[in-house]
Design goal:
mainly alpha; Four Helix Bundle (Hemerythrin (Met), subunit A); 5 helices; 79% helix; 0% strand; HPT_dom_sf; Hpt domain protein; protein kinase activity; Sig_transdc_His_kin_Hpt_dom; two-component regulatory system
Length: 110
Amino acid sequence: MIDWNRIAELRDEIGADDFGEVVEIFLEEVDDKIAELRDLTDKSDLESVMHFLKGSALNLGFSAFSDLCQQGETAARMGDGENIDLTAVIACYDTSKAEFLSALNKLDAA
C-alpha cells in the first residue's frame, strides 16, 4: 500500500525537517481533493483531479492509491468517468493515510 523505500528516499533527499513540511502540504492538498471527490456532482474535471492525486500519491509513496488514481485518470480520459469507483479511491486514500501516519509517528518517536 505504501512504498516505504520511496518515503526513506524522499526523507533522505530533503532532510527530516523539510520532510515534515512536505507531508503536511501533501495531506492538506490531497485532503482537499478527496473532499471534492466526496461531494462530486460534475465529473467533467475528473481526469485532471485523478491526475493530480496520482502525481501527489507517487511523490509520497502512496502506491496503491496512485494505482487507483491512474486507472481513474485513464477511464476518465476514455470517456468512462461514470464507472470510476470513487468510493474505492477514497477508501484507499483513507487507509493509506492512516497506515502512513501510524508508521510515521512510530518513526518519529524512535
